[in-house]
TrEMBL record:
It comes from Paenibacillus validus. This is Aldehyde dehydrogenase family protein. Belongs to the aldehyde dehydrogenase family. Residues 13-474 form the Aldehyde dehydrogenase domain. InterPro entries: Ald_DH/histidinol_DH (IPR016161), Ald_DH_C (IPR016163), Ald_DH_CS_GLU (IPR029510), Ald_DH_N (IPR016162), Aldehyde_DH_dom (IPR015590). The active site is at E248. It comes from the Bacteria.
Length: 478
């Protein structure tokens, strides 16, 4: 770690054009971590010019050579695993053990997609006997990425690994709340042998650095993860330039528990679904739809599970750490008050932590609401904190209707001992990924993305290579 970070452009640290910096803060203590360059249009221009050169050098390599470099990135991530885990923890407040697991996941992105770099195939099309017609998948060139603050290392790794495996160069603008690991990841890529300029990072604020990135004429593909409102702005900008865009946006994911579910694992899994990363996960299971016949017993079990949660500094390895910043803490607390005003019953949590040791951090109790209807604000809007609403149902048809009655469609889960029901319900849920008797298993092989306002396009898995390539058809007269 450095006391002051410039942008990472062309394989080196670069001072911001305006000579301005902003402070990164540890959400557990409120203390300064480092100073980061406050980027603007001039910095983006320099990064894009560098990426033009980086793309030429990167795409000139054999696909197998690109794959070998991506695999070396994975090896280096594992070598420096504890360093990256520590950076993630002080930048986001996440428990250290979870940060370490996310660094391993990031290594898997580079490893898995590095192995696929020389396996991006086209097709031979039997169009006629007079021509040989085939397709070829090509990179876009420069891809622009705007990543969020909730899991910065994995968000940066999954987007960069996919784009780079497909042969593109990358300009990335991480969220200003947590940009430390993204900068160090780009530096690591150069150490692994990636040509300078292949992976550039410009830090700063959305309007000052993010907007120039998505509007730059040389950026031919845009990937954004964040709020629906900002995603709409990104999509409009992409429409003006007619460039493809992939969006991973918000979620209000249903987590359905049937009366034949194994109560204890269902409650434990449902607790993880809305408290992992202190609820700051777009796919969090924040609408808990429980069959009425088991509702009292299930809520009691859920509260018992919540009482076991340890809250504290990330470096102390608690169950959950703080919210990422004071603004996010106040946002979550506002939603708690809205829930009370609308008639929901607060049965657990709902407050900022008052312990002397934690008073300067942005710590929030896990929060459980019952007596909730699906029309309440806390059941409709994404809170992005450790808050769950419990909604009762009677029949399978009603559970499916409640689950799909949302403008989002990122994830969903079904808990049942009847595997036929599990498959039947999963097929009818309007979500990009559905879990049965589990919630949000971490893997890099499966595609990830949303339905409806949760976004378009897919990250992760081999499907992500389609997101970062365009298809050319070639026909040869025989």
């Amino acid at each position: 770690m450095q006391e002051t970070y410039g942008h990472f452009i062309g394989g080196q640290w670069v001072e911001p054009a305006n000579h301005q910096y902003f402070e990164g803060v540890d959400p557990s203590t409120g203390n300064k971590i480092s100073s980061f360059a406050r980027g603007n249009k001039e910095d983006i221009e320099r990064a894009v010019r560098s990426s033009e050169e980086g793309f030429q050098a990167w795409y000139a390599l054999k696909p197998s050579a690109r794959g070998q470099i991506l695999n070396r990135v994975a090896q280096l991530l594992r070598k420096y695993k504890q360093d990256f885990a520590y950076m993630e923890t002080i930048d986001t407040g996440r428990p250290l053990v979870f940060s370490a697991s996310l660094v391993e996941t990031s290594a898997r992105y580079f490893e898995y997609l590095g192995g696929a770099a020389d396996k991006i195939f086209g097709e031979v099309i039997p169009a006629s006997n007079e021509h040989l017609t085939y397709t070829y998948r090509e990179p876009y060139g420069i891809t622009g990425h705007i990543t969020p603050w909730n899991v910065p290392i994995t968000q940066a790794a999954r987007g960069a690994a996919s784009a780079l495996a497909a042969g593109n160069s990358v300009v990335m603008k991480p969220a200003e709340q947590a940009c430390l690991s993204t900068l160090e990841l780009a530096k690591l890529c150069v150490e692994a042998g990636m040509p300078p300029g292949t992976f550039n990072v410009v830090t700063g604020y959305g309007e000052e650095a993010g907007a120039p990135l998505i509007n730059h004429p040389a950026v031919r593909k845009i990937a954004f993860t964040g709020s629906v409102e900002t995603g709409q702005i990104v999509m409009r900008a992409a429409a003006d330039r007619i460039v493809p865009v992939s969006l991973e946006l918000g979620g209000k994911s249903p987590n359905i528990v049937f009366d034949d579910a194994d109560l204890h694992p269902a409650a434990a899994g449902s607790l993880r679904a809305f408290t992992f990363n202190t609820g700051q996960v777009c796919s969090a299971g924040t609408r808990l739809i429980v069959q009425r016949s088991i509702l009292p017993a299930f809520v009691e079990q859920l509260i018992e599970e919540a009482q076991q949660i340890k809250i504290g500094y990330g470096i102390d390895n608690p169950t959950i750490g703080p919210l990422v910043c004071e603004e996010q803490l106040h946002r979550v607390l506002r939603y708690v008050e809205i829930g009370k005003q609308e008639g929901a019953r607060l049965v657990y949590g709902g407050s900022r932590m008052q312990e002397e040791k934690l008073k300067d951090g942005y710590f929030m109790q896990p929060t459980i609401f019952t007596d909730v209807t699906n029309t309440m604000t806390i059941a409709r809007e994404e809170i992005f904190g450790p808050v769950v609403v419990v909604i009762p149902f009677d029949t399978e048809e009603e559970a499916i209707r409640l689950a799909n009655d949302t403008e989002f469609g990122l994830a969903a889960a079904v808990w049942t001992e009847n595997i036929h029901r599990g498959h039947r319900v999963a097929k009818q849920l309007q979500a990009g990924q559905v879990y049965i008797n589990d919630y949000s298993p971490i893997d890099v092989e499966a595609p990830f993305g949303g339905y409806k306002k949760s976004g378009i396009g897919r990250e992760k898995g081999l499907e992500s290579l389609h997101t970062y390539t365009q298809v050319k058809a070639i026909s040869v007269k025989l």
